Amino acid sequence: MDEIAEPELSLKILGHQWFWSYEISDFNSCQKDGQSLKYVCYMMVLDGMPRNKQGYFRLLETNKRVILPTNTHLRLLVSAADVLHSWTVPSFGLTVDACPGRLNQLNLFIKRVGVFFGQCSEICGVNHGFMPIVVEAVKLDEYLGWVSNQMEEM
Fold it and tell me: What is the pTM of this model?
């Protein structure tokens, strides 16, 4: 595969039964001893949802959103821990298989700010329909502020 742009940020995506985990390790210089920014995204259930989140989309909202900067060359590295999954965000026009033991790479360039929804589109088991993906695209300065807040919480 020909690379036409050097990515400024890499996002590692790992599919599990039945949730997604994410890691951004490009900020190692800001961290203690090789820590990286890692988080896990589960689907939010309607029961017990906080009052301030009642307006969110049912079966599409996650406990944490994937925050990515706009107008930045991104590299997505996708794999799975257990069975086949498929990381799909239709608004981006992309889908990539997450296969155990295989690392798939995808380039992404988000042009506008917004919230984009997707889900696992592989029949990976009984709960595959409950693996939503929420990507929030923000301007670069907002993204850097979010990263610094996350690093302080670690």
Answer: 0.86
